[in-house]
Amino acid sequence: MRTSIRRTFVAATATSALAMTGLAVPALASHSDDPPGPPGSPGDPTIIVPINDSAAGGTYYQPFERAYAGATAEGTPVYVYVPVGALDGVEGVHSLDPAFDHNPDDTFVPCADQDPADYVLTQAQINYLGDELANQIVQVNEDHFGPMDAADPTDPASDSLVTLVYNVQDENYYDCTVDTYTAGYFAPDFIDSLGMNVIVLDAFDWANRVGEDPSTEPWGDGDPANDRPELYEGVIAHELEHLLMNYSDPGELSWVDEGLADVAAFLNGYDMTGSHLTYQQVFHRETSLTRWGGGLENYGASFSYFAYLWEQAGGNGDGSLTPNLGYDDAAGDLLVKLIFAEQADSIAGVQNAIDAFNARTGAGLRSAEELFRDWAVTMYLDDEDSSLWDLANFDLGPTSGGWTIDIANSQFWDDRGSYQGAQPGPKWNTAANRPDSTALPFGVSYEKFRNPGPRVALQFDGEDSAQVAPHSGETHWWGGYASQSDTILDLDTPVAGGATVDFWTWHFIEEGWDYGFVEALVGGEWVTVPVTDVASGAVVSTNENPHSNNTEGNGITGTSGGTYFVDEPQYLQYRVTMPDGATDLRWRYSTDAAYLDTGWFIDDITVNGADAVVSSEEGNWIETTGEQDNNWTVQVIATCDLTPGTASAGEVVDDAGNHVYRFTGDDISTYTLSTKCANGPNTDFVVSVSNLPSGDLTVLDAGYDYSVVKTKK
Question: Of 183, 230, 494, 619, which has the maximum CB count within 10 A?
């Protein structure tokens, strides 16, 4: 999946229905399903770009014309391109007119409700955005993260930034009921296919989404109520971080990359309130920090975590917490740059960066996991009087659309996880508003209790581990969990043409985007081979290539033994027959940028019925039990002291009078909590539950149970 940013689709002008049966297309705006010629180089008057439709699938080639040319103070060229003819109007322009259908023969029909007037692009808008790139965004991003390399080392002009503006074909393009759209994206494939550093921006509603105060700009409609100030400026700062990360650490997991991308917009001074934080507050319980799901809530979680780290590390080098557009090589700026550059992935990479930060500065910043625990409290309390549990740059109620976690649980989730009075076993076990006791990795559940009793304790039991179990024995092979990677598992047993290779496999692979391949070495070249299910004899590999990630054919994708995202994967026996002239065999798990599913497991491999031997070089496949070690954290959050007169183990108190009682382990029995200080109509306390897993796998859900029981003393 390409790395994209989603925004809520809010029309700034009224839409009208369009009944389009055909489209007269100007000659210059035509496109081709096949490459019509060389793509050109950055800065050329016209370039030819392969456009992928993320909803309907398929790729077509679209000519773009240069609408802006500039350069940064350090001389990096910056270009903005639009579909040929776009600045002369919308209707009839391919890749801009919302009625454009690049494949009229498929079942996907553009939404008829979109108004071409919402996609008008003007030279003044393009010049404004180009100047913002040249004068600020590129410099701020490169200073805070790292340099932009030449996309094609043989082409000096490729050391530049190309921004494409067109009407992106996504779910919203075809389905009128979808209220989010792809505001922009970075696709690493542009570097390989074009030899250019390319960022894409959507063409929707530039009249109200470009500029600090769009309603006062020449292109504005004069109505501030329609404005989404600097939305596209923030999107391009976000996507530029992805481009830079592609050069620095292309295998980094999406939650880190996406979180830092939102931080890039934040460090450029753009408004980062709105949908990302709103969705995180509302869908907090459904969101894992570290297992990327691609929803707006995932952006909100990862951004707020890294924004919290930036603030806790000191923000700017002078200790101020409002971004100043400069890089200070100290405090939060330094920590963010170290996280960006760290080659280890996910929480391990964040921890390595914190270790390097502490070694360099002597700051003694808390561990990545401790910061996660404090971030979990912060996302609930967000107390402006607290130096520990506050996001200084955001007020999570007003700046998240009026939603807080409490309001979301009460109004959106119908009083979910809110309890009054004592909770004896029968009442607790049948509570209709009690959420399912399943924890996402590095997720957070919040449940609040009012008047549960004057003295209570918690009893908690969490699953010690979760597992994708081997088909047989103690271990199996796993293709790993990394973006933009091709991991290899080698067959060491000798094979030849005509040999039958059987293997048992469990796979949950992002359908249509990521693939598993079985490859044979024939005449010195690796070629993919068809794969069949032994039980049914059906071919389970596919030659379909909706997003250009299965160009070799014979790819395995989706869920083993069922429908993708409906059925649970199961172990099945697959078979390949070695082609004539083959001398070797391997399994290759290929992932693109962004979203990942659990992946690909293989076990019990045979050649012509005899047990076979396999191996994998370091950094590729992992021989594992498939177990995830669960590490539970239970936090009791209160605005007063629940253990008066005692400095209790695990008690953390901030400078605003908030008390948090932190417990860790798989089986927890807490000490007595006295609720006298908060009894009455107020919430006595909130229980927060999180699983911080470790081990080879850290992406599985896990179950838990707990209860709040009365105590005598």
Answer: 183
Does one domain contain both 52 and 150? yes
Domain match, 513 and 551 both: yes
For residues 686 and 419, what is the distance between their CA atoms, to the nearest angstrom? Answer: 10
**Both structure tokens of 652:** 């953390």
Closest by alpha carbon to 258, among 315, 302, 320? 302
Domain count for the chain: 4
Choosing from 568, 591, 625, the residue where a domain stops is 625
- Cα–Cα nearest to 508, from 624, 393, 608, 596: 596
Residue 655, domain extent:
416-464+628-710
The answer to whether 572 and 533 have CB atoms below 8 angstroms apart is yes
Decide: 18 and 99 in contact? Cβ < 8 Å: yes
Query: Residue 157 has which token pair?
Result: 């002009």
Question: For the segment 361-402, what is each residue's pLDDT rounded down to a tens digit?
Answer: 999 999 999 999 999 999 999 999 999 999 999 999 888 789
DSSP 72-94: -TT--EEEEEEETTGGG-STT-T
Q: What is the DSSP letter of 555?
A: B
Question: Does the predicted TM-score (pTM) go above 0.90?
Answer: yes
310 near 391, Cβ under 8 Å? Answer: no
Q: Calculate the CA dihedral of residues 212, 217, 220, 226 and round it to 10 degrees.
A: 30
Instruction: Kindly report the CATH number assigned to the domain that includes residue 587.
Output: 2.60.120
pLDDT in tens, 342-358: 999 999 999 999 999 99
Residue where a domain stops, chosen among 248, 274, 298: 248
Amino acid identity of residue 580, one-letter, is: D
Same domain for 95 and 20: yes
Tokens of 635: 């936090």
- Residue linked to tokens 């100030």: 229
Same domain, 440 and 506: no
Helix (H) or strand (E) holding 48: strand 46-52
First and final CA of the chain: distance in angstroms?
Answer: 56
3-state helix, strand, coil in the chain (%, to 5): 25, 25, 50
